[in-house]
Amino acid sequence: MIDSRDRRRLNVLARAPHPAYVVWELTLRCDHACTHCGSRAGHARDGELSTAEALRVVGELAALGAREVALIGGEAYLHEGFLAVVRALRDAGIGAALVTGGRGITAALAKELAALALTHASVSIDGLEATHDRMRHLTGSYRGALAALDHLRDAGVPTASNLSVNRLNQRDLEPLYAVLRARGIGSWQIQLTAPLGRAADRPAMLLQPWELVDVVPRVAALKQRARADGIVITPGNNLGYFGPEETVLRSVAETDRDHWQGCQAGRFVLGIEADGGVKGCPSLQSASYVGGNLRERSLAEIWATSPRLAFTRARTVDDLWGYCRTCPFAATCKGGCSFTAHAVFGRPGNNPYCHFRARELASRGLRERLVPATPAPGVPFDSGTFELVVEPLDAPEPAPLRPEELLVIRAHPLRDRA
């Protein structure tokens, strides 16, 4: 998921749709098997793009005006052509960034990335040590992630971090910020854990919509605190919207008055899967949103002609339903984050993970609770469905998350054997 890091980036929204910000899954191979992984990463996809094919894609991205490419996995550094792709992006005038769990970031690799002018590296850290290792399903993962930050910083690569908030880690937000500040990060992205991939198998792990009334103001307070420390906190595309803290959450500078401007999937954001599948956002459900494959069609053709990529370009209020259809911010918000709404209800256009919505219901003594209805099938970037229950605000709280609810890594026979 990508958000604005400076005012220059925001200016892109005034231009015609083009894939300005790209998230590229180089491989689904991974050295973690995280309990909340949306792509169910572990082993490589069948038929992943070769280095030669990936280098050809770099040229296609440059031709369409891409400005920044975030390389992800799995773990991008496990692709044999990782460094060659970083070099090619640099030579094409495209900023290359890395999002990583950090386990394989050695001092030597960090120096190579610095020499290739990597724009920044964001190390995923899911909470304090016990929480992080539990979510990453690996003892020692937390210390490895912090070591990765140290190696990157010492090599001169600008560092960042990212976090997916859920019931397990949400109380770690404030103390984790102190840890990351001491490590010298320049930015921190905070998003919600959505019921996607392995997280779809663990509904008890997810925040309920009403919990945004507590979480969102805390993120906004951290953002204001971070400004004084010279750190930029950005909300993920599924965290918001239009509560009292909206301008604080979305604005880069304290004097700005920015706000959520609708889902940018297929407008200024593009996702590429390791086997060449193209979709409008890296987190969108593959079965519903992959609009073509780079082995079969050019990126320019897919971008220009695929309805699966263009769905947000023509989205109107009439495409919304449920609460979102009646919301006073409907014309601007257009239902919030598409993949999150789809992960809940099987289609976009009605998103219960909304700060304004949770506050408005709370003012009437109500809240919404999500109840699992159908399970996810068990493939990368999949989701099930939920039913929505409206109940009194003072209804009993969810039961504490049991350890066994995180321990089992659901396997897919071909792609999720970690």
Structure overview:
The structure is a single chain. The chain is an alpha/beta fold. The chain is 32% helix and 15% strand. It has 17 helices and twelve strands. It has helices at residues 7-10, 51-63, 82-91, 107-115, 129-136, 141-155, 173-182, 212-228, 246-250, 286-289, 299-305, 307-310, 323-326, 330-333, 338-345, 355-363, 404-407; strands at residues 21-25, 68-72, 95-100, 120-124, 159-165, 187-192, 232-235, 269-272, 277-279, 292-293, 366-374, 385-392. Strands 7-6-5-4-3-2-1-8-9-10 form a ten-stranded mixed β-sheet. Helix 2 (51-63) links the parallel strand 1 (21-25) and strand 2 (68-72). Helix 7 packs parallel to helix 8 (212-228). The longest helix has 17 residues, at 212-228. The protein is globular. The model is unreliable at 1-10 and 408-418 (pLDDT under 50).
Gist?
The chain is of the alpha/beta class. The protein contains 17 helices and twelve strands.
Features:
418 residues, alpha/beta, ten-stranded mixed β-sheet, two-stranded antiparallel ribbon
Distance between the termini: 24 Å
Question: Can you count the beta strands?
Answer: 12
Contiguous uncertain segments of 5+ residues? 1-10, 408-418
Q: Give, in spatial order, the strands making up the sheet with the most strands.
A: 7-6-5-4-3-2-1-8-9-10
Elements, N to C (H/E): HEHEHEHEHHEHEHEHEEHEHHHHHHEEH
Share of β-strand residues: 15-25%
**How would you characterize the largest beta sheet?**
10 strands, mixed
Our count of helices gives 17
- Mean pLDDT, nearest integer? 92
Helical coverage, percent range: 25-40%
**What class do helices, strands and sheet pairing give?**
alpha/beta
